[in-house]
Amino acid sequence: MTNVVLVTGATGTVGRHVVAALTARDADVRTALRDPEPVSSEIADVGDTVAFDFTKPETWGRALTDVDGIFLVRPPVVDKSEVGSFVDAADRVGVSHIAYLSTLGAAKNVLVPHHWIEKRIMATDLEYTLLRASFFMQNLLEVHRPDLVEHDELFVPAGSGKTSFVDARDVGEAAAVVLTESGHVDRAYDLTGPEALDYGEVAAIFSDVLGRSITYPEPSLVAFANRMRRRGEAVGFIALMCGIYTTARLGLAARVTDDSQRLLGRRPRKMRTFVEDYADEFRGTSRRTGR
Ligand SMILES: NC(=O)c1ccc[n+]([C@@H]2O[C@H](COP(=O)([O-])OP(=O)(O)OC[C@H]3O[C@@H](n4cnc5c(N)ncnc54)[C@H](OP(=O)(O)O)[C@@H]3O)[C@@H](O)[C@H]2O)c1
Hints:
Elements: E1 4-7, H1 15-24, E2 28-33, H2 41-44, E3 48-51, H3 60-64, E4 69-72, H4 80-92, E5 97-103, H5 113-122, E6 127-133, H6 139-142, H7 145-151, E7 162-163, H8 168-180, E8 187-191, E9 197-198, H9 199-210, H10 221-230, H11 235-249, H12 259-264, H13 271-277, H14 279-283
Parallel strand pairs: 1-2, 1-4, 2-3, 4-5, 5-6, 6-8
Antiparallel strand pairs: 7-9
Helix pairs in contact: 1-8, 4-5, 9-13, 10-11
């Protein structure tokens, strides 16, 4: 159990929900922000904010002062070694507990940076909880929203493979649980949603909820990469997405666990609930408000 909790990645897909869930639990939250000035009121209204950057160790001391627990995110743009050095710094100053946002399969997959960071955390004296999350439903709001809004299609090169999509709101709430309740120290949880779906089934849910036909054309990896290039996405990001969707295509992203249910004390959100909750954004009638 922790008192002051430092939340990294607090403006991100999961971090914003960690802040909200910790606040709802009356935890003492400190949000670590690269630029504390222009953050949304959603973040600024809660707790203390501190300037923090993984690539600027001179910002770490103030951020870590009197901190008991950390919600740790490795931003995709930050090198794993910088996150590792930050973990060591947290250990040195006496932080007691880190909840780390990892990815499903990280224990065995030596290719993902999360594998290395998990090991680095476990090599310290810190108490830890590893939150190995499945593919976020919110990726559909971010990377794939233009295809849905402008072309009425789900343009994902995942073939007929199934994915155990998890809602980032549930991941955020699970993080708040492990940081504020006892019994989660030195444990790892595989956080998935309640069902594994292929993208044809996801498209059918979109069609039903939005009241218009959304198709899943099962694009090849090459067709997907070409469209992403035309949209101006970076080559590295496209390669990462292709790797993730190849995992799904091979049927390796389909495992459903009951860890989310056990932590949340309720069923995690289904894909249908996610699409209903963000329907205006998928209809294009709402300004993108975040996740
Ligand atoms: N997407 C998935 O399906 C999925 C599934 C499982 C695990 N994951 C893992 O989740 C992590 C990403 O979490 P997310 O999606 O919640 O984050 P996100 O939406 O990608 O946002 C990244 C966050 O990191 C912050 N950030 C960027 N550079 C920083 C720096 N140099 N120093 C400090 N903060 C910095 C950003 O702040 P600014 O507002 O300042 O940019 C933002 O708050 C990754 O490690 C990913 O592998 C993702």
